[in-house]
Records
---
Amino acid sequence: MGQNSVRGEGTRGRVPRARELGWDDELHGAAEATGAGGDEPGEKAAAADAPASTRAERRRGTAAGAGRGAAGGAGAGGRAAARRRAKKSGKRKVLRWVAITMSVLILGTAGAGYLYYEHLNGNIRGGSRAGGDSGVQKAPPNALGDTPLNILLIGSDSRADAKNVALGGGKNLREAKPLADVQMLLHVSADRQNASIVTIPRDTIVPIPECKGEDGSTFQATNTAPINETLGRGGPGCTLTTWESITGVYIDHWMMIDFAGVVAMADEVGGVPVCVKTGVWDRPTRRVKGGSGLKLKEGTTEIQGKQALQWLRTRHAFGNDQGRAKAQHMYLNGMVEKLQKQNAWSDTGQLTGLAETATKALQVSDELKSVKKLFDLSMQLKNVKMNRLTTATVPTVEWSQDRNKLQMVKSSADKMWAMLRDDIAFDKNGKPATAKPKPGTPAKPKATAEAPGSFAITVANGTAGTDEAPVEGRAKAVTETLTGKGFTQAEASKEAQPREDSVVMYPKADGDQGRANAVSVAKALGLPEAKVRPDAKVEGITLVVGADWREGAVFKAPAVEAGDLPAGADDKSTCMDIYSVYKWDGKS
């Protein structure tokens, strides 16, 4: 690291921008900003530096005086020789003291930088990556050895902290379990050239798997709860496990932010640009109580502070939860674009300010719980161009059991999840990659599959989807196909296992050997390796023929092209439409 970088990191006495703009110190942690990460280490470095510089000047003066005295008692030749000796001696001493001074400076500021680094690490709150076992495996690497990156972004409505009550109201909700009212899956392609953000609206009824909380408590699986309740059923890890179970997509990390965090981040970047087609005022009406209080004039506004939180929480003025998701995506797009324009990733001062605010605002899964890991993550995101970032919301309809709840449109959701699993871009702007394998040491060989007829396979009929009848005799037909390919111990199960996607499961305890055998089964039937998963509950290799494979001896994945999103999913918008009741003329 260069000296300037160290100095900038170690002595920066910066307070979060929110306080510079008049926000309450307690809200943004003023006391913390002046501790190990504030001015004190820099002042110590300066104090250590000053005496060294002073001593250097004094000694240089003494050396020069001695040289003059010696020269005074000699002749011209002696004086010249003395001058030469003094000059050399002076040079050596100056160089020596410059070296000493530089060493003190570097050591002092490096120490301050280390303290500041540890201060930032101390800001970060972590939690378990997963709250249950979805059985979903990370996608295999492409020809370059790279894999997609998936991050679940969660917005919590927790009122457990007084700061969040002050911003979001609800004093009576201090003890209530938090809801994950914002849930976005950020998918970054394996080549890091495109990205997509997908939202499931908060009131969507989904199957939530069994989850365990940080304290070890167990939450039973349910099919009748909205997805925003996952946060109260074991924390963000349960929200991640639910998403994995629904999508079949392995999610690397989660990141969570609360009300106060939203305000702090919006202030740190100096405001986020958003746009409305008409003036908007989201206020209580005679028919609908509540409202976020958002009040903006027509056109583009850079929102920050509480106004940013109001934008993200507005639902009525944007029509419904689908509209709110679109507005949230606009906000996120605006923030990313502004960070790129500010060159935040290469500006040390800007990056330090963002680091201070972000490490306080965010809670992350444990494998991200360090400044270095968060910085490395940001480096993977910074090169995605704005025209390659697609935002989408899963199309929904009213839930049959409650019109105030939603359910996903199955065909649309299935198509979107397949695109994410197969790393197919949501946009049409990319060019086919010409990948060349990375040089390096070959990976250690994994276990080799045993002979096809040497292990048992259970085949179950899972073709009964949410809106389709099962295909009778499906398990038996696929069993006969396996037998014909040499898997003579395959046997059809009489018990149906309804499932949206086909999968080959193997006992988790069987490790690499179990996986190798399961992969051989999948390949024999044309199933991609991504559909092979470990499962702690199965006793042997189990093939479930899902609703995505209702006919044929060989599995054929539906052909999907880049940008081929289902109707109504792509929600990128330049300006938000406003529901008529909440339009504002900008005067009253």
---
Amino acid sequence: MTALTLSTAAATGLRADAIVVGVAKGAGSKGGLVVAPGAEAVDKAYDGKLASVLETLGASGGEGEVTKLPAPSGFKAPVVVAVGLGGVPEKDETYGTDALRRAAGAAARALTGAKKAAFALPVEDADDAGAIAEGALLGSYSFDAYKEQADAKSAKKNGKDAKAPLAEVALLGAKPRDKAYKAAVDRATAVAQELNRARDLVNTPPNDLSPEAFAAVAQAAAKEHGIKVQVLDEKALAKGGFGGILGVGAGSDAPPRLVKLSYTHSKAKKHLAYVGKGITYDSGGISLKPAGHNETMKCDMAGAAAVFAAVVAAARLGLEVNVTGWLALAENMPSGSATRPGDVLRMYSGKTVEVLNTDAEGRLVLADAIAKASEDAPDAIVDVATLTGAMMMALGNRTFGIMSNDDAFRTSVHEIAEEVGEPSWPMPLPADLRKGMDSPTADIANMGERMGGGLVAGLFLQEFVGEGITWAHLDIAGPAFHEGAPYGYTPKGGTGSAVRTLVRLAEHTAAGDLG
């Protein structure tokens, strides 16, 4: 992964492949390009005309726009990279942390193949330094484990691009000896590394990431970071009565798993339980998905990947809160042993569920895990899942929905998500939609009304939350997997959606900021 250091060196004398500076759109229609703070020395080397030169090259300062130009005479770096920050802040305001995070990510992506880059973006405080560090580390991510680029010689022989991610970032304008700055960058490093691990899991082909293989990854990480881990295999699941997880995994040769990750702190006063949907591949089962909808279904375990990453990050940060992660892992396949539409499953909670559609499988594995998590009586349960196409229809590809049995908690989760730069939106749980899941055969059906399908799924999950426990559901179906061109710090493929929200929620809980 990209290395990161804090530096007090001047941009003009630092040995690097490139110097990154920020530019922005001036106020008003004729405001012109503005060079952002942090780039004063670079601008001076251009005789104060850096903005004019960039405008001549077509730069506008728009968010994420990258413009490269030769460095002035006397610089030890050959290239200056100007990255757009968007609009200039209002008076007495600063560039927002997410604007800095996105700009750093765009610059890091543009510098693929470089060994070292110095980032001279605006740094007003430790939070800015942390945002830039996080953006650079997330933006430099790449997943090439399956590409024939083992070495440059092989790649050159085959005519392929062997460029590696940006190797090192020197963050200028920060304070290496300041505890707050060091803590912010250390935090950014831990969170970015674990988020990128979640991305790796989402991007791993399903033939190499069975429920058993995912559980093994979790076990290895738990051992490394002092996290207690328990893995329930198919025999333990049958003995425990986990009918939902077993029913979803029944059609696959790769049996299901339920993984419990327990991070505890001696000074913790609160306990959070995170539950992740981990369908390592979702064919739809007997209710087979139509052509064109299967190709990206390796991403259906993104919720479990997010939970896994968040628990490990909490452990690495030493947060004073107990965090338990539950990974509900199964592969949903059609076969002679698969669950059929019309079958009735007895869930871990004792409720029976009539399965009307085997492609509504995520709620079945989550229901078992939520019921199990409730037994520990945590202060709150948050489940994360690529659950419904309906949520994508409602909120698009970049925003996840938040549902909860507590309006105040839903608001808190939403505000935390916005704080870390993850677009989200609070969604209701209309009581009238519950009737659509009434079953003449079982306690509840796994399908209800088509309209409002994302909300119906939330209502289904609510049925399995322990009495009196605060709960929220994050439907990350849209932002979990990005199929378009990369932007900001978001790559093509797995994104690590919800990891930062879960980590910040744990931080706020540890600090006593939440009730």
